[in-house]
Amino acid sequence: MNKRILIIAVLMIAPQILFAEHLALDQLLRDVKKTQGLDAKTNKTREASFLAEKNKQQHLLQVAQSALAKQEKLSKQLKTHLDANEEALIKLETELKNRSGVLGELFGVARQAAGDLEIDLNSSLVSAQLPNRVEKLNLIASSKALPTISQLETLWFSLQEEMTESGKVVRFNTQIEQASGKPVESEVIRIGTFNALANGKYLQYSPDTGRLTLLARQPESKYLVLAEELAATQKGPVAAGIDPTRGVILSMLIQAPDTVERIKQGGFIGYIILIMGAIGFCYAIFRLISLSMTGKKMTAQLDSSVSSADNPLGRVFLAAEQDKSEDTDNLELILDEAITREIPVLENGLSMIKLLAAVAPLLGLLGTVTGMIATFQSISLFGTGDPKLMASGISQALVTTMLGLYVAIPLLFLHSLVSSRSRVLVQILDEQTAGLISRRAEKK
């Protein structure tokens, strides 16, 4: 009974399962069919869009080809027109050349003169007073057309104006650039086309800025004094220093080193030479003054009957007075001893002055060798293409030699003066001691 019930239940469940599976497959079939319809619709839409874009691009291509053909046609027309214009231009130039004849060469000379004058005016001191003179000349020099009568008159006037102003000494007010770059309004004295002065100082014209600039390094003081006298004089002839090269020499002053820079080029050895020279010079002057004072005291001692201990001769006389014996030999020994004590004092410092005079050239030679070594090192590293790389070593070599000679020569003269003065004083001592001995011998 139970088995029969179970069989009936199974038979009832199985059809339900088969029916459910059948429904799921039908749904899947409907979904696939629906999707296929949508994809086909989308593909048709995209295909239509592609076809429309293709037709649009085809239309644009036709438009571009039409424009290209139009432009090519226009290009041919322009080329034909250009060729015709060139032929006409050649004919006109030939006709102009035939008609102008000699005037063509004349106008060429005028253009060349305008170009040369433009260069001169651009760097002329007169342009600081009369600016904007170059533009009209530039039009004449750069133009290919024949110059007009007005332009030729402008060229003539510019030449005449420059010649006239070159012979004048003019005062005018303008801005001057200081060393700091700050412009200052000041009165300027222009001496022709040679020099410009302001406040007793020399100026330089800068074509780039069109202004006068104060020279960073001025000439010697004697020329500055003349410049101040010129600034103070309102009329009448006055002496003044001018640069005949129109500023070239003054511009070279900036590059030329002064005394301090020359000394710096000597380096460490140069400073040693100068210190030794200063010490030797000061000591030699001190010894000359000391010997001169000693000589005056000895001269006063010769005129005095009382022996004084403030000078070598007086001390020698005192040593002779202390000897009460009448023995001449004993007196001679005493005087020799006194003179022996005084001679080192009179000859003090001579050996040091002589040593400094001898060492100074040797130190100069040492600086020369050191500078040449530095020069050869620069040559080995950088070659000989740029002389400026070797200039420092050569400058040291030459400057130290110069400083050594500058120190040695005066010291030799001072040594000779001190030595001769010392010998004179020693000779006075010898003469006076010989006189004492002779007088003692006469008394005996």
Word description of this protein:
The protein is α+β, with helices and mostly antiparallel strands and 444 residues long. It has two domains: 113-253, no CATH class; 267-443. Helices cover 75% and strands 7% of the residues. The longest helix has 99 residues, at 2-100. It is elongated. The model is unreliable at 6-11 (pLDDT under 50).
Write the layout of secondary structure elements.
Elements: H1 2-100, H2 102-122, H3 126-129, H4 135-142, H5 149-165, E1 169-177, E2 183-191, E3 195-198, E4 201-206, E5 211-214, H6 221-232, H7 248-255, H8 259-265, H9 267-303, H10 312-322, H11 328-346, H12 350-382, H13 388-443
Parallel strand pairs: 1-5
Antiparallel strand pairs: 1-2, 2-3, 3-4, 4-5
Helix pairs in contact: 2-4, 2-5, 9-12, 9-13, 10-11, 10-13, 11-13, 12-13
* H-E string: HHHHHEEEEEHHHHHHHH
Give the distance, in angstroms, between the N- and C-terminal Cα atoms.
197 Å
Can you list the strand order of the major beta sheet?
A: 1-2-3-4-5
Oligomer: single chain
Radius of gyration: 55 Å
Mean pLDDT: 79
Overall body shape: elongated
Number of helices: 13
Strand content: 5-15%
User: Into how many domains do the coordinates divide?
Assistant: 2
- Major sheet summary line: 5 strands, mixed, barrel
Strand runs, count: 5
> Helical content, roughly?
over 70%
**Spans with pLDDT under 50 lasting ≥5 residues?**
6-11
* Structural class by secondary-structure content: alpha+beta
